[in-house]
Amino acid sequence: MLMTYFFLSIFPVSSAQDRIEQSSGEMTESEGAQVILMCNYTTTNPYLFWYKQLPNRSPTFIQNQYTTEPDFKKRFSATLDSTSRTFPLTIKNLRVSDSAVYYCALSEYELYKI
After folding, report:
1. Which pTM does this prediction carry?
2. pLDDT tens digit string along 41-55?
3. Which CATH number fits domain 2-107: 2.60.40.10, 3.30.70.3040, 3.40.50.300, 2.40.110.10?
4. Is residue 87 within 8 Å of 104, Cβ to Cβ?
């Protein structure tokens, strides 16, 4: 079974030096496969986040560099690499329900989930 993943480019800018870039386009991958979504950043204080958005729904928090939402812990992971300035999201064992728009986001401030 083939699944389609849609990805949107986002270029939020909080200052002249703070920026993230995400690959744009559409990916198609087989169920059970693994996919890596890239997020490159240019900032001195990276507070980065990944979100998943289903059609006609609000974005859902997946993870930041400190914590992962429990519903995503088994198959989703992202590790901040300060050397390459990347925060790639890996999704293992793809399911049809993973079809969505995925956003990499940058905040100027460290945010904590309460």
Report:
1. 0.80
2. 988 777 899 999 999
3. 2.60.40.10
4. yes
